[in-house]
Amino acid sequence: MSSSSKTTYFIIGGNRGIGFNLVKTLSSSTCNVVIASARGSPSLPKNKQLEDLGKIRKNVHIVRLDVTEDESIDNIAGEIKKMPSFQGIDIFIASSGISDSYYDVLKTPKSVWLEHYATNALGPILTLQKVYPLLLLKKLGKFFHFQCCRVYYRFPTYTCFCVWPVKSCFEL
């Protein structure tokens, strides 16, 4: 099958959780090419599963991306274009995110709220702005943004722990 007839997925947050399972599932078909992003060095323990999968599946390509760093976002389209036989992205799946605050909700500092917003909301959109031209190279052009958000609120009188899926899909 020629690379032009394969479906190309770009998955940010492909090194762990839902993102990694999407990479594993989608790359099990040789009809798909999967570009997965990971934050930080390949030697980090959190990136090991993805690195190992990339060694055994030739249709998995790994790029470095930190959605909180402008330079990383600015360079991502160029990194993707360097891949052998790259012809465009059909589907962009944003599944990266953080959830690491355990403050009482009434005491959570503004900086924590802003860090989560910058990573979970702005990061995928700013990345989309940079890779949008690569989505235009293919006819499908879809963007999925979803996360499984975990929120832990502690109020003075009770504790609430919630998990809910968040998703959106845009046809470009």
TrEMBL record:
<comment type="similarity">
    <text>Belongs to the short-chain dehydrogenases/reductases (SDR) family.</text>
</comment>
<dbReference type="InterPro" id="IPR036291">
    <property type="entry name" value="NAD(P)-bd_dom_sf"/>
</dbReference>
<protein>
    <submittedName>
        <fullName>YKL071W-like protein</fullName>
    </submittedName>
</protein>
<dbReference type="InterPro" id="IPR002347">
    <property type="entry name" value="SDR_fam"/>
</dbReference>
<keyword id="KW-0560">Oxidoreductase</keyword>
<dbReference type="GO" id="GO:0005737">
    <property type="term" value="C:cytoplasm"/>
</dbReference>
<dbReference type="Pfam" id="PF00106">
    <property type="entry name" value="adh_short"/>
</dbReference>
<dbReference type="GO" id="GO:0016491">
    <property type="term" value="F:oxidoreductase activity"/>
</dbReference>
<dbReference type="InterPro" id="IPR051468">
    <property type="entry name" value="Fungal_SecMetab_SDRs"/>
</dbReference>
<keyword id="KW-0521">NADP</keyword>
